[in-house]
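hey can u check if this looks right to u? its 438 residues, i copy pasted from the old doc so theres a chance i mangled smth
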Amino acid sequence: MLNFVTSHMLKKILPYIVLCFTSSSYAQPKTDSLLLQILGRTSSSISKMVLQNPTNYRLQMIYTQINRDKQNIPSFNNFYFNYDAESYYNPASMVKMPLAFLSLEKLNQLNQPGLNKYTRMQYDSNYVGQKPLIRDSTSETGYPSIGNFIKRAFLISENDPYNRMYQFMGQEAINASLHQKGYKRLRITRQFMGFTEEQNRHTNPIKFLTDDGKPFFEQAAAYNTIPFDFNRQFLLGKGYLNKNDSLINEPFDFTKHNYIPLEDFQQMLQSVLFPLSVPEKQRFDLEKNDRDFLLKFLSQYPSETSYPKYNDSIFYNSYVKFFFLDSTHKMPSNIRVFNKVGWAYGFLTDVSYVIDLKNKIEYMLAATIYVNKDEILNDDKYEFESVGQPFLNEAGKAFYNYELKRERKYRPNLEAFKIKYDKRNPADHRTDIKVVDN
C-alpha cells in the first residue's frame, strides 16, 4: 500500500495541495496525501483541469478503505480530498437515499398488521399545490407502494417517488429522525415540486389498502411547526433564470434548499451495508428483508427489472453508476455498485460501495463536482457530459485500479453481497418506459 509521497510526485501535486487549502470557508478543507497520489494517476486533460482547480469545481471526495480481519470483520478508514462539511453543494437526488431508509424504518415502527413496503397506498390532498395519487402503472399491482417508490428512486432516480416518501414521512419527522441518528448538520426542507417554504411544511393524507382495495390504515395530513436555522447563506453563481425564464443578475440563493454533507451520505450508506460498523443510534431500524431489498435495488440494473419496465437502451446499466459511466454504457460483469447519485444545478454527486466478486476487492467512494462554466443557474447549460461525468468516470477507474493492486492481509469474503437479481422476461411485451422526471 502506498503510504508516502515521492519527491517527484510531490512536485506534480504541489499545485493541487495549494489550491485545496485556499478555499474560503468556515473550515479548512481536508486533503489526504493518499488521494493526491491516486488522483495524480489520472491523465486526461479534463481530470488535470479539474484537479488544478478544485475550488472552482467545488470538488469534494471521500475514499473509504475497507480492511477485513481473519474473521472477515471489516474496518473502515476514510481519506479525503478538498473535503469541507460546511461548503455547500446541492445534493439533488441524493436525498432519495435517506428517505428510502427512513420510510422502511417508519413502516416497521408503525407495527401495523398487513402494513409493509408492498402494501397498496393512495394519496389525497388537503393543501394548495398538493397532488393526489391513486394508481401507479409502473408497479406490478397497479397501485403505489413504498417498495415501488424505492425501486423507482434507486434504479433511475425518478423524482415523484421522493416526493411521495417525503409526504409519507413528513418534514418534521424526516429531520428529527436524521438528527437523532447523529446527522446534525443536515436539513431536508423541500420536495421536488416547486413549492414554497410553507407548502413544503404540509404533507398529504394517505390511505393504505388491502389487496381488495379497502382502506385499513390511514395517516392524517401533517404540518411541521419546527423552524429551520437559515442564518448562514449559501449563494452561488453570478445569475439565474427565474420561473419566467428571465435572467436575474445576482447569485442564486440555496440557503433554504436541502443540504446534507457528503460524509453524512457516506455514513448513511455504510450504516445500511454494514450496520454493525456504526454506533447503534446511527443505524436505521430495518428488518432483514428490508435491508436485503435495499441492497438489491441499490445495485440492480434497469435492464434486470420488470416493474418498472424501463427502456434499457435509454436507461442503460451504468445510467446511475457515475464512477463507471463511460461511452460503452456497460458495466463489467464482475463488478456491482451499491450507490445513489444526484444531479442538478450543475452538481453531480455519487456515493458508492463497489465490489469486485472476481478479484475480491471492496471499497467506498463518494464525490461531488460542480460544472457550470457560465455561472448561470437554471439555464440547463451545465457541463455534465463534457466535464462532470468524464471526470467522475476517470477518478472512479483510478480508485478501482488502486484497489486492484492494494495489498491486503485478508481478502474479503463477499458472499453477503452476492444477490439474486431479477431477470427481465423476454416474453413481456408491455410498452417500456422511455420518459421520466428525474
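The mean pLDDT is 93.
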